[in-house]
Amino acid sequence: MAGHSHFSPANVEEHFEFTSEGKKRVIYAFIAGVVALVLGIYLLSKGEAGGHEVANAGHDAVKAGHEAAAEHLSGGAVSHQPATEEHYDWTNRIWANVWLNAVFFTGIAIIGMFFVSLQYLTKSGWSSVMKRVPEAFPKFLYITLPILLLVFFFKGDAIFHWMHHGVTEVGNENYDKIIAGKSGYLNKTFFLARLVGFFALWIGLWTVLRKKSLEEDLIGGTDLFTQMVRISTAFIVVFGASSSMFAWDWVMSIDTHWFSTMFGWYMFSSWHVTGLAVITLTILLLKDKGYMAYVNENHLHDLGKLMFAFSIFWTYVWFEQFLLIYYANMPEEIIYFLERWEGHNKIYKTSEILMVFLNFFFPFLVLMTRDAKRTRIFLKIAAFLIIVGHYIDFYQMIMPGVLGGHAGYGLVEFGMVTVFASAFIYIISDELTKASLIAKNHPFLPEAVHHDI
Amino acid sequence: MSSTTNYILGVYDDEDEVLHAVSEVKSKGIKIEDVFTPFPIHGLDRAVGHERTRLPIAAFMFGVLGLTCALALISYTMVFDWPMIIGGKDFFALPNWIPVTFEGTVLFTAFGLVTTFCISNNLYPGNQPDLLDLRITDDKFVMAINVDKNKKVSADDIKKALKDSGAIEVNVK
């Protein structure tokens, strides 16, 4: 600590350089992802894609039996998307993957903004030394918004049951009374208004916050800080409403008949802990390259604590949602978990177990001790596995409703996530170059530099 | 602190000074017994060289004990002693038990931890605090040096070292 006692903002400026070698590596990863994706799509079109599809043919009878049982259990009232079962289109798997990754990475991007806003709202000092990292994340919203819109416009009916033709039209053969009852909320116009409206607010508030933040580097003072606190307050209010609504819209409405009042929290907690893991991992990788010299093990300890705590929070919300449904044992609710546990020829069971292990037991046991939270390699492994675990969490949320028994982990999944991840790394690295990695005129910076726990 | 040991006390009136004094005194080969302050000072425990507390280990043990007790109680009452069907579930319906098990774990951890802390710090009802200097509860910082544990350095040298490091007074107790 002695070296930091004469802290002066003038000499802390630190500029991240996105080297051409680094760029090349990210682009190679992107190309590898595209190649895997194309190969995966080709195999899929031949009907030979990896995963569980090959085994499916032989087990159709068993599956049919399971579905009949589920149908019987639910009194026939909540048949789950029979249309996708009957006229299955193999391209659906591609669109489901695009949607899954777009939702997942939108979450990571906006959690960057949420994290910064929370720090301003609570006037936290410790995080000011690294706030430029999460502050760069929302840039990726510019990529995911058009992707979400594109999938919604062109392939919405492949993903959302409520967008199927004629489900709300009385007399139509597809007419579905339950969905028709929800059409006041679940209709294309309102859905689109929410999507575009909230995205505009997110991006708008982020742009203003980012502008003020960069301005602060030049002029300093506390006026800009106060203004940023106000913007953050506005964002937290917007995010409180929008994160819940997007959980209903983007994910819960896939299983249109089913609903859970905990779903907004559930998806938010998944997003949040993933975002924290990505922030931690980014900071650790930057430190490996010699940047962020002022971020020491005390700050990493705090990030580790957040990952630990919010892994438990996720478990709490996930389990509570399950427990209420398990206890009440209502057919129309419990079918959601039956599908993920023993339905669809049990293809989701392994993922479900793996997910709970990666998202709860692993971070809980590994990040429990103080020493682990202060050791970079432990943090790195934990952060990476949390990200993987929550990808699987989103897979479990989205795939059973969209693809039923046709999902699996194959080249398409691997390729798609590689494409999105490398695009994310490229965009964020590029955004990081645009400002000093340390907000040198942040009023709490001296406090953060002397952070000691 | 028992009254039979000999202590040399350096009294300081600034927290930065006492923090620097710790390393200065230590550099002269003097072992510091403890530093008493009215409020926590960041980095002081590291500077004195205290071992990290083992309370987290106790907390974990109490947590495991609580988990075991809760599971044992529920399984004895709900499965063995008086089996009951609730909500059409098995007798051994683990998901139903999680909330109570969680509460049991937290309860045992909290109570066990506080009790351990109090016992290890001699905090119990009726205990008279044995303060080396009453002013450590107000605005002074006191560095205590156990003479018996510093055989190699003479008492006068210790006093001098304390004075040199900025102590406003040096007492013997």
Commentary on this structure:
Chain A: The chain crosses the membrane at residues 26-44, 98-120, 140-163, 191-209, 229-251, 263-286, 306-327, 347-365, 377-395, 407-428. Chain A: Keywords: Membrane, Transmembrane, Transmembrane helix. Chain A: This is Quinol:cytochrome C oxidoreductase. The complex is a heterodimer of chains A (453) and B (173). By secondary structure, chain A is an all-alpha fold. In chain A, 70% of the residues lie in helices and 0% in strands. The model of chain A is unreliable at 1-5 and 49-85 (pLDDT under 50). A 4-stranded antiparallel beta sheet of chain B has the order 2-3-1-4. The interface between A and B is medium-sized, with 13 and 11 residues.
**Percent range for β-strand residues of chain B:** 5-15%
**Proportion of strand residues of chain A:** under 5%
From the alpha carbons, calculate the radius of gyration of chain A and give it in angstroms: 23 Å
Give me the strand/helix succession of chain A.
Answer: HHHHHHHHHHHHHHHHHH
List the domain count of chain B as a whole number: 1
E-strand count of chain A: 0
Helix content of chain B: 40-55%
Organism (chain B): Aquirufa ecclesiirivi
InterPro entries (chain B): ActD (IPR021776)
Keywords (chain B): Membrane, Transmembrane, Transmembrane helix
Protein name (chain B): DUF3341 domain-containing protein
Show the helix and strand layout:
The complex is a heterodimer of chains A (453) and B (173).
Chain A: H1 20-45, H2 53-56, H3 60-73, H4 82-86, H5 92-121, H6 132-136, H7 141-159, H8 177-181, H9 188-219, H10 223-251, H11 263-288, H12 297-328, H13 331-341, H14 349-366, H15 370-373, H16 376-403, H17 411-432, H18 445-449
Helix pairs in contact in A: 1-17, 5-7, 5-10, 5-11, 5-16, 5-17, 7-9, 9-10, 10-11, 11-12, 11-16, 12-14, 12-16, 14-16
Chain B: E1 7-12, H1 15-27, E2 34-36, H2 44-48, H3 55-81, H4 94-120, E3 141-146, H5 155-164, E4 169-172
Antiparallel strand pairs in B: 1-3, 1-4, 2-3
